[in-house]
Amino acid sequence: MEEADKKAKAEKTATASANEAKAKARRKGAKAKVSVPHGRAYIQATYNNTIVTLADLNGNVLSWSSAGSSGFKGPKKATPYAASIVVKNALDKAAGSGIKDVNIFVTGVGQGREGAIRAFQANNINVLSIKDITPIPHNGCRAPRPRRV
What we know:
It is a single chain. This protein is α/β, with parallel strands linked by helices. The protein has a domain at 38-132: 2-Layer Sandwich (Nucleotidyltransferase, domain 5). The protein has helices spanning 2-29, 80-93, 112-122, and strands spanning 38-45, 50-55, 61-66, 101-107, 126-132. Strands 3-2-1-4-5 form a five-stranded mixed sheet, covered by helices on one side. α2 (80-93) crosses α3. The longest helix is centred in the N-terminal third of the chain and has 28 residues, at 2-29. The relative contact order is 0.16.
């Protein structure tokens, strides 16, 4: 009888230690909340979509959102309203980081450019600077060969 009790007790302690090890592993893999008061916002406004990425000053991404992931479909993805919703979703995802000030970098020629910038100001984020980093071709593509008639 005593041997059976000892055996059951040993199994319980083995199970408990295994559960503790699993919990410790989970805690080790969990991301630590980082306080980032100052960050960067990258806005990619194309003709078909608007993508907003929030990063810290080192370039580590805190959160991102796009019009497609926010539930917009088709031509509605490129609207200024969709861009404002995208910014709100990205800021909600990064709420734990405590972001207050952003430098904005805008790429692309879509309609969501202005709407996204206005949305940052509407969500009580201090916009320090706005920079357009849209690539400009220096000499363009190679011209097609002349026609032979």
